[in-house]
Design goal:
heterodimer; A: mainly beta; B: mainly beta
């Protein structure tokens, strides 16, 4: 049984470049979340997708960040013109629809912006 | 504005003893609380949860206690085992009536259980 997968596992990029992070949720999970964990801090909510509803983008830190999801499958998080403060672990989670459903996390993508 | 706080960055416990991890929250709209465990290079895994209508939930060696008046919850692990060594995150949801489960996390506590 496949869990949530993310790629790449590690990404090193230069300041100013764009990066794209991918998340494959668990099959059948209609809810998908992106979180960010900076060094020494907790997880910070970025964006939420639920089925065909408009995503909740309230956690995106700037307009350099965007995310898309194709139906109820793959999601990509794009960071444009990366800055050093974007360095973090980006975690994706999926769950069955509805509140109180357990969120299952992927292993994360470690992004380092030089 | 840290709405969920874990004030102890680390905790060290002897194998077989009790581990108590603490968490405080400020948002009175939170009505569902969770604990996640995270090993290095892995994503967090769900451990146990509690709804605000309860004050205790137990699952094997893990018990979560909720004190709503104090806006405080704790995770008890008895007996602690070396395999429990990990980072533990407290999380909360339910703010503002939103029903989709967006989680607000604490900073995490590193638990080390010594053999």
């Amino acid at each position: 049984g496949a869990g949530v997968s993310q790629s790449p596992s590690n990404k090193v990029t230069e300041k100013g470049k764009d990066v794209e992070l991918r998340c494959d949720p668990i099959s059948g999970h209609t809810a998908l979340y992106w979180y960010r964990q900076r060094l020494g801090q907790g997880l910070e909510f970025l964006i939420y997708f639920q089925g065909n509803s408009a995503p909740d983008k309230s956690g995106l830190p700037s307009d350099r960040f965007s995310a898309e999801r194709t139906g109820e499958s793959v999601s990509t998080l794009t960071i444009q013109r990366t800055q050093q403060e974007d360095s973090a672990v980006y975690l994706c989670a999926s769950s069955l629809a509805g509140n109180r459903e357990t969120q299952y996390f992927g292993p994360g993508t470690r992004l380092l912006v030089l | 504005d840290q709405q969920v706080k874990q004030n102890s960055p680390s905790l060290s416990v002897q194998e077989g003893r009790i581990s108590i991890l603490n968490c405080d929250y400020t948002n009175s709209m939170f009505d569902y609380f969770l604990w996640y465990k995270k090993y290095p290079a892995e994503g967090p895994t769900f451990l146990i949860s509690i709804s605000s209508i309860k004050d205790k939930n137990e699952d094997g060696r893990f018990t979560v206690f909720l004190n709503k008046s104090a806006k405080h919850l704790s995770l008890h692990i008895v007996p602690s085992q070396p395999g429990d060594s990990a980072v533990y995150f407290c999380a909360a949801s339910g703010a503002g009536g939103t029903s989709y489960g967006k989680l607000t996390f604490g900073q995490g506590t590193i638990l080390t259980v010594h053999p």
